[in-house]
Amino acid sequence: MTTFAQKIYEVVREIPVGRVMTYGQVARLAGNPRGARGVGFTLHRNPEPDNIPCHRVIGADGAMVGFGGGIDVKEKLLQIEGQ
Fold this sequence. Notes:
Layout: H1 3-13, E1 21-22, H2 23-29, H3 36-43, E2 57-58, H4 71-80
Parallel strand pairs: 1-2
Helix pairs in contact: 2-3
């Protein structure tokens, strides 16, 4: 696993319940402001979905994108969390 991937997972682990972050925000906090696509690529391979809440990461325009469990599941999880 790359250092950037490790940082991505660290950032995403810290997103509080009921909050979301964009792929770009995660990329910036992980040290690569131009790495939004890399965030998506990395989260698509999330090794610990129970501990790394990648459903809390959304598109820059607020769109529900890029969730391996399906967009409907992502929306439902965020709804349950109060987002």
